[in-house]
Amino acid sequence: MDKNIAIEFDGVGKQYRLGLVGTGSLQHDINRWWQTAILRKEDPYLKIGEVNDRSKKGTSDYVWALKDISFKVEQGDVVGIIGKNGAGKSTLLKLLSHITAPSVGHIRYRGRIASLLEVGTGFHPEMTARQNIYMNGSIMGMTRHEITSKLDEIVDFAGIERYLDTPVKRFSSGMTVRLGFAVAAFLEPEILVVDEVLAVGDAEFQKKAIGKMQEVSSHGGRTVLFVSHNMAAVRNLCKSGIVLKNGMIDFVGTADEAVDHYLMTNITEVVSHTNVGKKNRILSECDVLHDVEMLEVSMLNPTPDAIATDESLEIELLMKRNTNKKKDCQYSVVITDNTDTKILNIVSDVISIPQDRDTFKVRLSVFQHGLPRGMYKVHIAVGRKNFAEAHINYDVAFDLLSFEVKYIDSIKKQEYNAWRKEFGMILHNKECIKAHIL
Fold first, then answer.
1. pLDDT of residue 92
2. Fewest CB atoms within 10 Å of the CB: 80, 328, 371, 419?
3. What tens digit of pLDDT does each residue of 150-187 get?
4. Which of 171, 172, 135, 129 is nearest to 154 (CA)?
């Protein structure tokens, strides 16, 4: 393996047998052992395994959680691994962390690996936080003196000084994650593996953890594998990105390219009213007509990184008209929180597209949003309803903007809660959004 390569996956695959544990497994295990160990033949069950598409019923009891995984990670790189639930992200990290072994292929790496895959991974619940820190350090091959030199930094970062000598079983999930990440990050592993567990922590801890991973990679020269459904975090933290789909690699590129590929090729649910039962439609790239498309999107608020609770959200779109036909359209603004949970979905009145110019600007004002303090992302769809009252999309874009909402002194907590109860969480309310052509 090249000296600059920290991790190498070569034709790696992981196969599992579906069904209840122990049902017919002895017969299968004996047959597998006889074929591979005694007759020196290929595992007979590898040929009948199916791709891991959880949305379809298969014909085989064997499924490939991962298949034909090959990639290399350079030292000091921060790689984001993204994909839908069940795509194989956590399985890949478990193979790298030696929690389970690959069915086929080889994994090579250089240096010590610290993993944070699940809440409480590697901790003994009956042992205190201090004892678990020393135990984890010893497992990683560190001396007691080395661990002691890092103890104060670990405790300070985790914010658990008061509970240092308390058994970990009495910790909340958030406290456990804080301690686990601090141990993994400060005991100086050459490779840091982090799964979605950061979502359990509060906003302050998430910010600290991302900053620490950036520091570890940029200044410490260590390699980080980061699994997350927070696309903004992947863009900001990672240099490279790997998209997994049905247990196989779908795309490899920069973090921005990987996120864009994932958002454009994976199915995204968009709420739209139809005249048949008002069911949700499924929006995919083939549903976007591109008669009108967004070229640029920007926020016009004086301080877009700190919006006040009673301040309207001002968005400007640079649009391009790709048809000579007269078109009317509506502008939908979807706002999600940092866990990608939809908070608001509001749709403007119908306005006509200018016919005298190929490009034009649209000003969107979102007010009375009732958003509490926190970080948010903006997604925008441009479209209209046809004669059958079905929604047609001209253009759809995800993760366009991010902003933070803060409380302000002019709104007391009690007054704000009453205001939010009246105006907050409004879906498809045209009174909360105004759109006009500039």
1. 92
2. 328
3. 899 889 888 888 899 999 889 887 888 888 888 877 87
4. 129
Q: Which of 139, 114, 98, 138 is nearest to 14 (CA)?
A: 98
pLDDT for res 58: 53
d(CA 179, CA 127): 13
Cβ neighbours, 10 Å, residue 11: 12
Give me the pLDDT at residue 45, please: 63
Give the global pTM: 0.56
Residue with tokens 């005991």: 187
pLDDT of residue 274: 25
pLDDT of residue 419: 47
Which amino acid, residue 161? E
What type of residue is 222?
A: R
